[in-house]
Structures are given as structure tokens and as C-alpha cells.
Amino acid sequence: MLRGFNTAGAGMIANQRHQDSLSNNMSNALTPGFKQDRSTFRAFPEMLIQNMENRNIPTENGLSIPRNHIVGSINSGTYLQEDVPLFEQGDVRETGLQTDLALQNGEIPDETGFLFFEVQNEDGEVRYTRNGNFTVDAEGFLTTNEGYYVLDEAGAPIQTGTEAFEVLETGEVISPFDQSMLGIAYHPNANDFVKEGDNLFNNDGDVEAVDARAADGVNFQVQQSHLEWSNVDPQAVMADMTRAHRMFEMNQQVVRTFDQSMELAANEIGRLR
């Protein structure tokens, strides 16, 4: 009976964590460049149950033969293994702001390949994002709204000096101050990227991201005064949240039933009269 407690409890925890992941997706439905998370579930290892007994043979010496009868396997519950970002192109919408840039995917040879803007975090390390909601700081550098420098193809911060700059479809930045090329990174397996907050990704794999312009068969376009929207589908997320809530309630009812059975066993069946 305690095994049933553990199985139902594990289901409640898994669905609660799934609900948290879905809530995060819903809260970022309007965040430019946001990539929704998909929850992956996994069952705990199955256990093989067998009945172990001794069979007595009616002989003069009382022979006893061990006998094992396989009952079958039982699953001890499920858990949420991890949240995996869904790398799909979001809708591209016009904003009218020159500092907004959208990275439009073109031809990509690898099924799991993806493109990113390159930025520099507060520690001076290269990070990746699809959020092109940029701005120009007081020193004339092109930055994210969180203050991270947008990098060029050489890994240096881009300095436009003004918000009146032009960006060509190739990613070339033309301003009165300077000309440079946006740093556009390509990675053949975007599943190696993990979220770090502020809509940034870090490459957690062994393969380095490369300049998209140097990658064979990779095409893209940079659209100025446009933003790539989140790829979250609010209606689908709401349906998943309802399903997760119902699954949580079902496991909760199982726990309640086991609890009532244990109470009955402890207070009624085991009572001395």
C-alpha cells in the first residue's frame, strides 16, 4: 500500500512541476524571441515482482522445494525529467522602431540547427538570443534592454552612435559612426543550448557555434523595424494546463483513498476488543 502512496505522490509532483513550466510559457507569451519549454516525463525503473514460496512434498523426510512464481512488473511512478526549449521560428511582426531587429530563418541544412544573435553578458562571455528588441545606450553601443552588448562578427560590441542607423538583410549595420556586420551564430544542434535567464542561451555542448555566413547551406535575413515574437501558442498552453491540473487532482484522489484505507486499517482492523 505504501508503494501506491509513492506512485501517486510522484505523479502529483511531476504534474505540479509541469504546471510551473506551462505557467512560465504563458507569462512569456508576449516576450520577443522567447522559446517555449516542453516538459519531458520519464518513468521510474520498473520492478519485477515474483512470489517466493516453498512447496512441501509429502515424503517420509518432509522434502521442501523452493518455488518462485513471476507475478509481473510494476512501475513505481513518473517524474518530470527536464524542460527542453522548442526551437521554432516565431511570428515576425513590424514594430516601426529602427532598433528592433528580427532574425528570419532561411535554408538550414540540419534538422535541429538554429540561428542566434550574439551578445556579451556582464561577465564578458558570449551568449545567444533570438530577442532582437535592442536599444542604443548612452555611449552609442547597441545593447539589449538588459544592457548586454550586441556583438559583431568579430566578437566586438557594435557602436552605432545613434538610433538612426540602417541594417541590411545581410546583417550589415550602416551608421554615421561606423559600419559593421551583426554577429549571427549558427549551431547544428540547438538542443545543446540551455536557458540562462534574460532570454539568453548558453552553449552547453561540445560543438562550438560558427559564423552563419561561413556555414554551408545556411541562409538568413535580418529585418529591421521588426521583431520575432514568442513561439508560445496560448490556446495550446491553456489546454495543457487544464490537463495537468486534472492529472494532479486524479493523483490527489488516489492519495486520499490510500490515506483513508490506512486509517481504517490502523483504527478499525487493528483495534483490540
TrEMBL record:
Coiled coil: none annotated. Its main location: other. Keywords: Bacterial flagellum, Cell projection, Cilium, Flagellum. SUPFAM superfamilies: Flagellar hook protein flgE. The keyword Nucleotide-binding does not apply. It is found in: Bacterial flagellum basal body. Residues 5-35 form the Flagellar basal body rod protein N-terminal domain. Residues 116-173 form the Flagellar hook protein FlgE/F/G-like D1 domain. Residues 223-266 form the Flagellar basal-body/hook protein C-terminal domain. InterPro entries: Flag_bb_rod_N, Flagellar_FlgE/F/G, Flg_bb/hook_C_dom, FlgE/F/G-like, LlgE_F_G-like_D1. NCBIfam families: FlgEFG_subfam. Belongs to the flagella basal body rod proteins family. This is Flagellar hook-basal body complex protein FlhO. It comes from Alkalibacillus silvisoli. The lineage of its organism: Bacteria, Bacillati, Bacillota, Bacilli, Bacillales.
